[in-house]
Amino acid sequence: MALPPLPLEIVSKILLYIPLSYLKYFHERLPKGDSLKSIIQGEIYGKLVYVAGNHSDSLEEREDTEAHLVPKYSDVIDDHYVASIEELRALARRILKAHVVQMKIIIRTHRTLQTFLDFCNQYPEFISEIPSICVVGEAQSLRLLTNVIYWENITHLELIQGEEFTMILCPPHLEKFSIVFLDQPTQIMKGWPKTLKSIKIQDARCAKSILLPDSLQELICHDSMELWTTYPSSIRLLDLSHSISDVSCIHIPSQVRDLSLQFCDLKDEDLRQIRFPPQLKRLDLKYNSIRSLADVLFPSSLIMIDVQGCLINRLDDVCLPDGLQELYVGSNQLKSLDNVIFPQLKLLDISAKNKDHNIFNFSKARFPSSLESLLADGHKTKDWSKVTLPICLKRWTFSTVEDSRYLLFPSNLEVLFIEFPESSQSKFCDLKLPSTLQEISLHHGVSSDFHWNLPLLSTMSIKDCKGPIQFPSSLIELNIQGLCDQMFRNVQLPCGLRKLTSTYPFAKYPESLTDLEVHLPGNKYSEIPRGLRRVQHPPQFRPSLEQKFPGIPILDATSSDLNEYFNTAEIDWS
């Protein structure tokens, strides 16, 4: 007996959890007239991005039938679907049925805007019915839009070359404003609409010439000079990274909940001068010259402290707030966690990026029983097997010089990253892994043909291991990197795999694969499954792949991709 179809209301809710690129792919393969098409169209086109100057702008207008509506994959930017001019025309003519509630217009230069201006003149009602519009580009481009866009609907502005912006161009219902100056004098800006809640400023010579409205809730000011001495009491988020030179001149409003002072060259004495707001929740002090937190009086309200990339060498003299939930102290100069008293943290980041600053022993560390995430990779640790870890730990990243036979794991662990030394002979089959694991990453070590016994594992990453490998059948996403292509030749990939990233091509891919990245050519060209929606391959494969898979983006693997995986400074592509 066939099951009855799900009600469309339930289907609509299910679609909310499916990535836009998947929805687009599914939509293009539904038969014309299918009731699902209009529902999926609403999900895809409800939030749009239009990039003026895209290649599609130069294409001639196509026939007004659904079959000709650019049935090609499009990118997604900030959860917004990137639409072509043909798709905008189809939406305006109701060929595609969707109510657009948000639209972002990205203008590369004002010279690329003409196609969109013509569209706005042709379909003024369509543009006027979009309740929230964001414009990204030059102020000069903004002027060109004034005559074709319903100005009251512009709620977000993101401008470069801010010197050209004047308050005459300010929309009356603006909610978010972002501006980048090109090292030019800053003009006085005042008279903001009462709706403005967020301002972001970059590279202003005189930031205080931008008068802050009383309604402001978020202020981000980077790489700027001559800051304000007072701020509106309504501000909840304040980010002055790269901008502070003298903390004694800064008065932080008492209502601030999120404070960020990254890259401000703050020293210990500066930190002691700052009067933190009494209700502060999150404090970000990354990449400053802070050596000690010993005499810092943190507000008891703090739930997050981030001091990554500073010069801190000890924590046993620090008084942390009792309610603190997340502490990021990675990439400092810590040598030990002995005698450190942690509050009931949920997340602790003590990872190391500098090989000269390692914690070799953790056996005396007292991790809080509440800890759910422990990020400790980068240390050449010798005694993880002797460390008592919290039972509730769900995420653990670490490096070790111990043999895999002696490592123990919490029974509820879900995410695991282990880095062995490059010369390690530790065997993966000796790891006593909990069956609760959903994601695992293993760097170096020795693999063999064995059953992992990890029924919930969906994501795996393997880098530079030795020996044959058998992948768990439950995998959906796999990243496998190696400098030798032998390990890629006779390996069988899981039949349900959807996303694969690898150094070399495999001999055969499963038909379930939808996303493929291969960074170096192999000895033989592999057959590509027809269900792919995204391919990234070495440049020499591009012509044959484009011919075989029209409409699927064939991206070139570049040396920057390889640097990410291999940490190499240069790649020889000769």
Automatic annotation (TrEMBL):
Q: Which domain of life is it from?
A: Eukaryota
Q: Which organism is it from?
A: Sungouiella intermedia
Concerning PANTHER family, the annotation shows: FNIP REPEAT-CONTAINING PROTEIN, FNIP REPEAT-CONTAINING PROTEIN-RELATED
What InterPro entries does the annotation carry? Leu-rich_rpt, LRR_dom_sf, STK_FNIP-Repeat
Q: What is this protein called?
A: CIC11C00000003661
